[in-house]
Amino acid sequence: MSRPAARAVSGQPSRKGVLGRFADFLDDRTGYRAVVHEALYERVPGGARWRYVWGSTLVFAFMTQVITGLFLWANYSPSAQTAWESVYFIQYEMAGGWLLRGIHHFMAQAMVVLLALHLLQVVIDGAYKAPREVNFWLGLVLMMLVLGMALTGYLLPWDQKGYWATIVATNLAGIVPFVGPSLQQLVIGGPEYGHHTLTRFFALHAGFLPATLVLFLVVHLAVFRKHGLHAKQPITKPDAMFWPDQVLKDAVAMLAVMAVILGVILMPALRAMLAGEVVHAAHLGAELGAPADPSLPYAAARPEWYFLFLFQFLKVFEGWGATGEFFGAIVVPGLIMTALALMPIVGSWRLGHRFNVAFTLAILAGIGLLTALALNEDYSALWVNRASLAEAEKLHDQTGGDAAKLVAALGGDRTKAAAIERQWKTLEKVRRSQAYLDAVKLAEADAARAVELAGRPERIPPAGMLELVRRDPLSQGPRLFAQHCGSCHAHVDPLAPDAEAVIAKSSAANLHGFGSAAWMRGLLDADQVAGPAYFGNTAHKEGDMVSFVRDDLTDEATWPKTDIDAVVAAMAAEAGRPVPQEIAGLVEKGRELVAASDRCGGCHAFRGNGTDLGAAPDLTGWGGRDWLVGIIVDPTHERFYGDRNDRMPRFGKAAEGALPPLSRKQIELIADWLRGEWYRPAKH
Amino acid sequence: MARPHGNDPAALTGHGAANHRAAGGESRRDLLAKVLAVACGGLATLPPVAAGLWAFLDPLRRTRGAASFLSVADLAAIPDDGMPRQFPVIADRVDAWTGFAAEPVGAVYLSREKGSREVRALSATCPHAGCFIDLEKATQCFRCPCHNSSFTLEGGIVNPSPSPRAMDELECRVGANGQVEVKWQKFRAGVAEKVVQG
Ligand code: FES
After folding, report:
1. Residue A307 near residue A146, CB atoms below 8 Å
2. Residues with CB under 6 A from ligand 1
3. What's the sign of the alpha-carbon dihedral A352, A354, A356, A358?
4. pLDDT, tens digit, 9 for 90 and up, residues A366-386
5. ipTM for the complex?
6. Taking the model in full, what pTM does it have?
7. Do residues A407 and A534 both lie within one domain?
8. Model confidence over B88-128: pLDDT tens digits?
9. Residue A356 sits in the same domain as residue A415
10. Which of residues 23-42 of A touch B (CB under 8 A)?
11. Which of A234, A424, A534, B19 could be cross-linked to B15 through a Cys-Cys bond (beta carbons 3.0 to 4.6 Å apart)?
12. Class for domain B69-183, per CATH?
């Protein structure tokens, strides 16, 4: 527009307010009105329609990601020692951090859905056909960029989930022929995952990829405007302008998308509120797993749900080795992308458009099916009735899964054997699903514990959260116990419903509550001492202690009930455990009894009572940290079982030059866990 | 192109702009659509912007903990010759999520006069703009390397100096065990009055 013309259209300047005159001034110097006009007044053939909103919602979603991403950037720190920590800080300590992160996290997922819808609409409407082929290809590039941002963003919190998913994704990149290994090493910033994996992923996620995306988006939109909107035929209504008709529909769609996102963020909190729980930051927004730990198995590893189909698809090629993986992860997706890219050409043939639509729907259906299969494999234990498999399960245990033995066990009934074998397959699936569900539960517990530890008043050590988790008895104790002690010892609350079965299977004492008054009372109970929870499944079953408890302690004349109470009180006090109120006054008396040579002191050394070491464990400091660490280090020491030690390994001892099975630190973790000594947050 | 007036709203109806506006019902509908479009778009954009600003302003909520007396040296380590000596201040420090135990967090100059048990503690932070003040043995004075503010050994300002005030003296006491304790505080830089930074 030339200047005089602009003046003529704007009418009498004298009647305009300050704002109007300023707008005139600005337009005169910049020509912004023409730009705005150009942007808003685009003809929409056949009028505004809901089916055209997807492109705009995608732009909106991207803008949301840019805004929230920049603010997250202001608080994120990409390094192996600070990534999890800074995300924790955003999520749990910064005002509004949960909302900021929640929007970013879920909008990323919404974007994938919107992409699929946009693509579907373009294909169905035939909007990819000439003259819009180039724009269709630009759109495909944009899709890859968005998926790339999703993939790189998943790692940034440096939690177990993102870490293991990224290991898998980058290893898959590594199987590309020739360049794969170098590509992988470039992406992860060296041969190992660490600081540079994060800095590089972050640079990709927040720099290279979005910058490229903006570039392509600008061209995509420019080309879109050049050709105008591709109207869905037949056109029944009069044309309308982009502004305000289509903009209104777009804006309503954006608002709907945002409402869904906010709903997803707030839903768990609402549910907790309705269940009468206290709403915690963990209920709000995106999940944060336990910090990444390369040394800890993570059976709950799964990609984000929109990549789940690929994960499932790869299973089809299980057993083909690297070739299969190459085929499934690179060749097939590559072919599909190629087919998508060829659509504009195919579309110009007779029936080509129908083929394209059918192909796209088939791909989406395939993705849906694979996703459903993956979910079914993971969650089937939730809906398959385990009771209906009870017989098959029993037979499986009996025969060890051997088909020949099964037929024999069923007295030669081959039809039944075949049916049972089918059930075994289901059983196998249910077991695997259950293992996955257990792993998820464990992962959630680990995550919650990490968050609890991060909130300690001493805060996170400079070496990072992982170090803190690794020296937490509550996190490490059960794992170390299961690995090193659990093959003999049970650790189960005797009052738990399945306690009896677990204890019966163990071959050494149940260490749940070891050192407590209740544990000691059980040991001194004639009915229990030779049971499986104590010495029943050990070499000491016929030992002196068992006969002492059975013969001497049951004699009320020498051992009245208060004397036993006193010993229980003294031993609980020795272990540093709480002494029950009703026997709290008996501790001193108990100590005398334990020390006395005609009572416990006849065999046990106790607080310098003069009894020699070697006959029975020294009860000085029994059940305390030092005592426990000592017996785990070396049960054959004369302070403990000496040469009468029954099978228990010397966990802290090794031959010259060799490493002991457990480090001192690990033994201390086990001892602290057994004693229930770990950080507990103060109750507010 | 085949669309002669593609971007002209008037082209839609075939009438001129004036006629278009004259159609009252149409324009009212139009106005409503415009208002609604702006409202919906604004409402949709509000959550990310609000969440971002909310989190961005979080640092304003964070405060320094209350100042406390920290043990910095043994009285015997400060010769009674009036000459200041530099000592590190060791304290527990929390930086966002990281907790540092017993870390050097700054430095003080301690001095005492002949035979006195009274210790003068001067913050090493320059009141001008916060640089670390040096002790120049040769010229027997304090000098800030950034803009050359000079101070006497007692912390008094030597004019002309860009610093608006003398060096910041810190509250100091000597415990019964001979430990010198300093109240570790920071003060606003660049102003004439000594104002504690919260
Ligand atoms: S900061 Fe010391 S003179 Fe400017």
Report:
1. no
2. B 126, 128-131, 144, 146-147, 149, 162-163
3. negative
4. 999 999 999 999 999 999 888
5. 0.87
6. 0.90
7. no
8. 999 999 999 999 999 999 999 999 999 898 999 999 999 99
9. no
10. 37-38, 41-42
11. B19
12. mainly beta
